[in-house]
Amino acid sequence: MTRCIPFIVLVFVLLIPATLLSQDNTPEQPSDSGNRVEISVNAELVSRYLWRGQNYGQAPSFQPGAEITLRGFAFGTWGAFGIAGDGYPELDFYISKSIGKFTFAVWDYWYYDKDVNTSYFDYRSSSTSHMFEGQIMFSTGEKTRLNLLASSLFYGSDPSRSLYGEAEIERGFGKNELKLTAGYQFKGEYYAPKSALVNIGCTYTRYLFDFNKYSTYISISLTANPALGKTYLTAAVGF
Question: How much is the pTM?
């Protein structure tokens, strides 16, 4: 396998969009909202780059992102660029499709290691710095939201092909939000040397000012990786 992009495209072309029928008694008016392209951007400055209980060394880290949505599909990119610390710059791309309460996604995670002159276009399993992940997420609730995630690192720089599961509860109250997270590695060695609870977190977010569809916020998180015996307290600002 030299490239995974054709596989990603094939997976999502085969997904059939679900049609939602209105129950309003008034006559239906033609709508092109499903055909409308929407673009969103975001950016965050965090005191330390953590992901699923892993410490990536960037402290602090600037993390911008952008997404295009159309017909329930989302195409996006996200990056992490260290202002200080020893971590590597990261650039990720993803494609996702939402059907009802389920979201299916494929991510391409990539980092640049200047010490070995990492090439972005190296997709060979023996030397690539890409990791491809397949995800399925189930989400339900409105004011209190439950997210259940299952993911597999199926190709790339994780030869152990790690399997990860996560449960997350989000609760909003006014301009405040509280999020509780628990993540477990079922297989592999990416998050910990063996199967274990690798990510326990609590995040409090306070939303500040609204500008059209964007809101500025500050947050503070307490994150622990019980398998590695590590605990971190981090802060972030963003929109």
Answer: 0.83
